[in-house]
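We modelled the chain as a single entity of 195 amino acids. Its sequence is:
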Amino acid sequence: MSEGTSPASLPSTEQIKEAYEKVSYRQRLLRSVASTTNILIVVAAVTVLIAVLLLPILRIYGQSMNSTLSSGELVVSVKGASFKTGDIVAFYYNNNILVKRVIANSGDWVDIDLEGNVYVNQKKIDEPYLDEKAFGEPTIDFPYQVPDERVFVLGDNRAVSIDSRHTSIGCVTSEQIVGKIVFRVWPLSKLGPVH
């Protein structure tokens, strides 16, 4: 050996152990990150499926439900098959989603007097959600019997709402219905159930 050079030094057991722990830690960290990422992807996919299939979130447009729902609000709807008088439903109409209130079901007779009072099977229904009653400009004759497997719907802003009083929309089939509106999520100041 020449002067000034030293033999190659081998790493100590402590250095080997430390290097092994670093590599092992990196592998555990990478596995943990990959596992967490996979879990987040699955949770996001399930959330999207639930939102699309079971609890669609909808944005309100227009003025037909003013006093109950205003344009720009976000609401959650729930899929369902049976609806009662007073339920608010969203339904497809000409590539749009409309929101109206169920007034009567198939087989029921609906009548509206000139003051805007609504009768179902000759009984006046209580409508505390209305700011103002209106007969509107119907294109159907009253009394009117709701056809099989359909619901008769009206907007809460009766003076301007185009609804089952008009042949252009008519009564709504169960296939058209997106769901029952149950909860308002926006604006936060109005967060809560929708009645």
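As a brief sanity check on the tokenised model: Residues 12-53 form one domain. The chain has two domains: 12-53, 57-190.
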